[in-house]
Design goal:
- The structure is a single chain.
- This protein is α/β, with parallel strands linked by helices.
- It folds into three domains: about 280 residues, 4-Layer Sandwich (Metallo-beta-lactamase, Chain A), CATH 3.60.15.10; about 150 residues, 3-Layer(aba) Sandwich (Rossmann fold), CATH 3.40.50; about 100 residues, Ubiquitin-like (UB roll) (Roll), CATH 3.10.20.580.
- Strand 17, helix 9 and strand 18 form a beta-alpha-beta unit.
- Helix 10 packs across helix 11 and helix 13 packs antiparallel against helix 14.
- The radius of gyration is 28 Å and the shape is globular.
- It starts with 5 loop residues before the first strand and ends with a strand.
Amino acid sequence: MAAGTLRVLPLGGLGEIGKNMTVLEYEGHLLVVDAGLRFPAAEMVGIDLVLPDFSYLRGRVDDIEGIVITHGHEDHLGALPWILRELRADGELPPVFGAPLPMAMARSKLDEHRIKDVEIEDVKPGEVLELGPFDVELIHMTHSIPDSTGVAVTTDRGTVFITGDYKFDQTPVDGRPADVARLAKLGADGLLLLCGDSTNADRPGFSPSESGIGPHLEQAFLNARGRIIVTCFASNIHRVQQVVHAADKLGRKVALVGRSMRKNVNIGRSLGHIDVPDGMLLQPREIEQFPDEKVVVICTGSQGEPLSALRRMAFHDHPQVELHSGDTVVFSATPVPGNERAVAETIDRLYHIGCRVLTARDAPIHASGHGYEEELKLMLNLTRPRYVMPFHGDFKRIELHGKLAEAVGIPEENVFKGQNGLPLELDERGARFGAPERAGMVFVDGVEIGDVADVALRDRRMLSADGIFVVVATVNEQDGSSVAEPEVIFRGVPFPDEAEELLDDLRGTVESTIARAAKDGIHEADVLQGMLHDDLAALVYQRLKRRPMVLPVVVEV
């Protein structure tokens, strides 16, 4: 990279919704903006979390001037402890900066992971941090969580503005609209590059105000005769506040269910973002002590997450809340792309129990935290960037955001529709894409982090779909002949009526394969296992028209 070149490298968030992470590089120094995760797709069997591939940072910890977090949502903050834990072996960890709420959430996450050797610094919007060659300023934005900011990064090359997630809500719940004056000043001073949120680039007009949701929640509560269970994102503190207000007006008590819900509400209360009247909160174990018409439960699970509170309630697996007919369940959130099936399954189970279910399709009880088309245009017109690089969206939304930029007068050649791992390089000659860097996914499987091989995921999918055959063959170590009848064990395999006939054929195939190997002088166990696998898999597919996992085991005696 030539001297004086500013490089903007997205490691996550482009071509997808989630795991947002960007590296800015100038004169050998690095600045990281956001460290998010996303939740696994259905085909990622056994995977718990998906992180951005941060290989680019390995071995360069000493070059990182800081990590800046735009806001406290998991897709911008959730990967931080995992990444820091892995980078700790490379040197002293860089400081982490952000507004007070995301930093309080970061401290909580790092405490859970027992990571103590990191400086976490609260930064107020308008303060300028001098981090090596980067001057970093947080600019207040409006989103579905308090203390959301955009990040303006200035070097000798110019200023890059990463919007984070935003909308132009003129009546936000906390009364603090986005700092439009500062955005306009960025434009007046000359903005080099805008990296903007593309989530709702496909939705015309302006997004509804978050404060408009409160009255509709109250109306929904008025129509509910029994208990009310409201599910939303645990980090949507403004929404929790509105649920508390609605419950208070109707004389209902509130119980918080779900570890992340309780934790985030406690953080929000400590920072003054949530006001809960004294004596209003119930412990989950106290719910049964109050009449149904006097209780509101706020819980996690709006995305159908397998271990979330609502999902467990729907399947009668929650230790403290037993749903029953007459309960009203309010989904004050919409499914993130990819979660639709899990949400639908949860809703179906709720109907089976006898619950009344209310979603955003039934009433205006949810407002997106991301701006619609007209708000994206407003951002472009306020900041008047020389170059635009749409962020935070799948390829469709990135394309649409690029078209919006062109519609407000940005030349087509100045709009860069990128992807993860493709750096944008800016120098005195202009802007262009550089050579791609490694970028992809890192999986968290249980408590361990690592690149789960494609073959492992393939095997898990195969096991879940078609089951497994385990065939144990015992052979003579000297001449390779069979010395005992082969044992066949199967699990999860859909068998035809003639199961015994198939098992006999499998044993016969094992015997004939062993005999053929012995005749050819093949005594190596690994070679024999390969032959058994091929022969048995062919027979099973011929008979079942399925491909279960076939696992031959050769025992030499």
